[in-house]
Amino acid sequence: MPLQRRLPKRGFTNIFKKQYNIISVKDLSRFAPNSSVDADVLKEAGLVKKVKDGIKILGGGDISHPVTVRAHMASKTAKEKIEAAGGKVEVI
Length: 92
Fold this sequence. Notes:
Elements: H1 3-6, E1 21-24, H2 25-28, E2 36-37, H3 39-45, E3 55-58, E4 68-71, E5 73-74, H4 76-84, E6 88-91
Parallel strand pairs: 1-3, 2-4, 3-5, 4-6
């Protein structure tokens, strides 16, 4: 029998862990200026296949026009970049 089957499984798996869909700020730049972006719009655009426990916006990349984003979580840098462009972040 192989060694990995003879040794016991180690570690812990948290069954209550929340899994978020990750969206970058640069992905939001494809939407029209002054548009509202939420889970349904992201799903139609193909950025999210299935909404798991929520959507989290991360600050990778830049955005040059204002958009209104409705998400479950957003990082500090993502909020700063969206608000610097004139947009708004609404945490659900």
